[in-house]
Amino acid sequence: MNGTSKGLVILFLIIAGNYIYNSIKISKINKMETLEENKVVELNFSKSIQIISMLVMTILVIMFTWSMGW
User: Fold this and answer.
1) Euclidean distance between CA atoms 26 and 29, whole angstroms
2) What's the number of domains the chain is made of?
3) Could you list the residue range(s) of the whole structural domain that residue 37 is in?
4) Which residues cross the membrane (predicted)?
5) Model confidence over 11-25: pLDDT tens digits?
6) Span between the terminal Cα atoms of the chain, in Å
């Protein structure tokens, strides 16, 4: 594969991961009660989850591209 298709695959994986993350986050927020303390906890929790998920996605993309021999 050339560089363009590699970039498109990586972009697609990032968009798909972000979409899945956002849909999970929205369903969690809908279940949450509307107390201010819960909102603060949810914000801090979602930020750490987002950082972790981005790291995991990056590692998965690197491993995937490595295994494909790009």
Assistant:
1) 5
2) 1
3) 3-68
4) 6-24, 45-66
5) 788 878 777 777 776
6) 7
SS3 48: helix
- Return the amino acid letter for 58: T
Q: In the structure encoding, which two tokens stand for residue 25, read together?
A: 């986050």
Q: Tokens 């594969």 identify what position? A: 1
DSSP the chain: --HHHHHHHHHHHHHHHHHHHHHHHHHHHHHS---HHHHHHHHHHHHHHHHHHHHHHHHHHHHHHHHHT-
Taking the chain (70 residues) in runs of 10, the rounded mean pLDDT of each run is 72 79 66 55 68 81 77
Q: Which residue has the tokens 């991961």?
A: 17
Distance CA 40, CA 18 (A): 21
